[in-house]
Amino acid sequence: MLRVRLSKLLWSSGCKYASTSETRIEAIPEETYDAYRQEASLNVSHMKPRHRIIAAGGIPPVEFEWEKTRSAARERFGTYGLESGVDVRQCWPTIEEIEEEKAIGFYRHYLEVLKEVKALEAAKKKKDKDRIAELEANEKRYPGLLAKYQAGQVKKEKEKDAQEVALEKKIREIQEYFGYWIDPKDPRFEVMFQQKQDEEKKAARQAKRLEKEKKTIAEVL
Amino acid sequence: MAKPAKAAASSAERALRIVENSSRVRLQDLRDNIGARTLGKQQSNVHNQHGHTIGQLQHAAKPPLGWIWGDFFRPWQRMFPGTKLFNADINIRREYTPLSLIELARLIDLGWVDQKKPIDIVALCATRKFKIEPHLRQCGFDLTPEGADAWKYPVDIEVQWASQRTIAAVESAGGRIRTAYYDPESLRAAIDAKTWFQSGRPVPRRLAPPPSLVSYYSDPVNRGYLADVAEIEHARQRLSMTMGTTLPETTFDAVKHPKQVFNGLPPGAIVSLKDRKVFMPTHPDVRDYYEEGLRADKQYP
């Protein structure tokens, strides 16, 4: 604190020093110079004056631009109290800030929110209740519906028309004969069916001939 | 140049040839298999640092389980946000520091917490044994029921989350428990009051929970601080009947106001620790701002 003042004094007087000897005598009295030298010899920590003040428990002077901001002033008040000389009113939000927060409308009234939440919960509860009621009703109807459906399935099976049955039989036969399934819509199906019929006819004819031969042999013998 | 050995006809012959050429086995020929004994290796200094090492992952302290090496600020949950079923809300989920009853009992036993005074997040954080970071979505304490069987302190406690077993344990010991919400700013003030006061900021007005938490904190079953007092008493009786415990007759001071962060300090107060003084606003608009009805926090998740 003291040193700042003195060094400033010395610096300002240092310019004058070069000009005339008269001003030099005015700027630095001997006792001041002694005090400065004494203080400089005592400062063995080589701390800056600001830090010496802080270390001694004092309030550092406002030196830098950032210290003039509102947040720094607040902090200054919070740390050093009334002695800091900061106006306490700076610590509260300004009217503009309060207005801005209100205008943004982030923070609604609790009762309003509570009402909304209650309404939402009630709606959800009602939805769940309705759904459960619906499920219960469905469950009651389920056995009857299932029986009806199964009966319908059986009837359907019976009522399949003859043509369809024949086609199914044809498909099965072809599958058994060739060893693999073939789509009835496939053009090869008809060809294969024809081939199968031909082969069967041939086999039948051959069997007939064989029987005839056997008969003749038996007759001859 | 040595004459090349005649190719062995079989492995047996080769073995025989080896045995023929080898010397007799003497005592000095006996030695360990290779690698049977190893000498300690002098690590370089940087790699010999008692668990703290530099460099590659195989030497370093390991990242948490589930962590995939990469950008720390872009974890894999965020890189692959595929499924809604697994950790979908990991980035918005609230965290509550677990505090078990047995830990709390120990804090009381060792004198870190005064059981005669109301125990809230301010008192718990003043022990400097917990670290709550509001910017990591940590919202306070979850009082867990470990040690519920041995719990015997009739405390007046306020936490942010509590299970039914915890509530039953506290109440059957003659205590009072409330679950209370602290919005992030209030939480920041509450977890470090000294720093807050020294920053020169006024004590914030505590906000009511956001819509997603309103139902929890207004539920008497959870002993929510916004629930009706009569309903809480009813829920208390019910829980004691369910748990088969008895409720001793106890009286406590009035609970902290929902807008208060610190006991005995109204919202809007500026505390000067140096002067040991509390300053209140006098401007009508500012006063209104702090004294108006309870406001709810903004919807956050």
Automatic annotation (TrEMBL), chain A:
Q: Which organism is it from?
A: Mesorhabditis belari
Q: Where in the cell is it found?
A: Mitochondrion; Nucleus
Taxonomy, top ranks, is: Eukaryota, Metazoa, Ecdysozoa, Nematoda, Chromadorea
The UniProt similarity line reads: Belongs to the mitochondrion-specific ribosomal protein mL64 family.
Q: Which UniProt keywords apply?
A: Cell cycle, Coiled coil, Mitochondrion, Nucleus, Ribonucleoprotein, Ribosomal protein
Query: Which InterPro entries does UniProt cross-reference here?
Result: Ribosomal_mL64, Ribosomal_mL64_sf
**Could you tell me what this protein does?**
Acts as a negative regulator of G1 to S cell cycle phase progression by inhibiting cyclin-dependent kinases. Inhibitory effects are additive with GADD45 proteins but also occur in the absence of GADD45 proteins. Acts as a repressor of the orphan nuclear receptor NR4A1 by inhibiting AB domain-mediated transcriptional activity. May be involved in the hormone-mediated regulation of NR4A1 transcriptional activity. May play a role in mitochondrial protein synthesis.
Query: Would you tell me the protein name for this molecule?
Result: Large ribosomal subunit protein mL64
An annotated GO cellular component: mitochondrion
Q: Where is this region: Disordered?
A: 202-221
From TrEMBL, chain B:
Q: Where is the Large ribosomal subunit protein uL15/eL18 domain?
A: 99-177
One GO term of the cellular component aspect? Answer: mitochondrial large ribosomal subunit
**Entry's Gene Ontology molecular function annotations:** structural constituent of ribosome
Which InterPro entries does its entry note? Answer: Ribosomal_uL15/eL18 (IPR021131), Ribosomal_uL15/eL18_sf (IPR036227), Ribosomal_uL15_bac-type (IPR005749)
Q: Which UniProt keywords apply?
A: Ribonucleoprotein, Ribosomal protein
Q: Does the keyword Ribonucleoprotein apply?
A: yes
Task: Write out the GO biological process terms.
Answer: translation
Note the coiled coil stretches, chain numbering. none
UniProt record similarity statement: Belongs to the universal ribosomal protein uL15 family.
The protein depicted here goes by the name Large ribosomal subunit protein uL15m
Q: State the organism named in the record.
A: Mesorhabditis belari
